[in-house]
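In the current project phase, the collection of sequences with tokenised folds has grown. A sample record is quoted in full directly below:
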Amino acid sequence: MTACHICGSAKLEPLVQKGTPFRLVSSDVQPVVGTAEYSLCSNCLAVQKTATPAWQAMAEDVYANYDINHQSEGAEPTIFDSAKGSGPRSLMLLRNFLETGELAEEGRLLDIGCSNGNLLQTFHSLRPRWKLSGAELVDQWKETVLSLPGVEAFYSGPNPAYAGRFDVISLSHVLEHIPDPIPFLKAISGHLMPRGRLLLAVPNLRQNPSDLIIADHCSHFDEDSLAYVVGKAGLGIELLSSSMLPKELVAVLSLDRPARVPDVAGPEADARRNSTKARCLFYFELLDEVRRAARTCARENRPFGIMGSSIAACWTMIELEDKATFFVDEDQNRIGRQLMGRPIVGPAQMPAGAVVFIPMSVAVAEKIIERWKKLPVDFRYVPTNRPA
């Protein structure tokens, strides 16, 4: 058994999915060939994909063909119903960040995992006098990022030689990809100014079980496991929120007062371990129920579509073996485009009498249905899909 990629413990307990193994989707929303092994570390209590050589090869293949936000030709996804309303994801994230503490009118920001620079563009609109830098594993977006206003540098490779220190370093949906997150955070924090802050966002497993079927995510964080990683990296937690962005954990970290590492021994830790295991096995059952419900809907002799054009929607289509004829999305940047060879239509364009399956949680499904209840379509969802 491979050791825990977070704490190095050999005490990995397999989390066994019953029935047919789930198909997988890449984080850039494309079908992936292969399956995953899951485990729970009895030491740090982290849910993870077991980092086998097969998983490593699968992740490397994903990154070699990465096509970020291809459903919208590079435009970032719209977040609906966040604490700051609806809008582009980076705008919602940064608006929340700016409320956590004063941010000077001038400074330096480094965005690690910057892809095509959406967060950098948004930050420039909020703090136009800041000097910005982006970093990525490959230089695919180098020229695009360097052409953005306020950008002074682009770095690529696994260990770039960053010039100087930064007042803010952002890591938005990066840490869940990293097999060794503790030394990674230690190294990154060494590039902060003494009073600098690190802005971190990762998927929240407790709100988003679909994170389990993202092929290249090796860590599936909740608040406890993320706090463990942050504390072991010697960083302090100024804020750790599960409500700022839907289905995400947002943290603001600093070099001051390292966070207390959650106790991994004793009755309380045992209770967390047991509840985490039970919760994850419940998520497996839930995903299987979503899969079965979607297949039932697809057998009806009616036009059939899937709500969304991101991870859950792509995964549902794969599990249905391409039996849906369209996707539905409220994001204007995606309407009129395609995913997996099927059109992405807006709600008003759904054919009358169609069955539209919503593979998201009940809370999300009910909001969607309320917004579009006057349309002549039959929305379906799984009523037990209530992650907690």
Summary: DSSP finds nine helices and 21 strands in the chain. Residues 267-298 form the longest helix (32 residues).
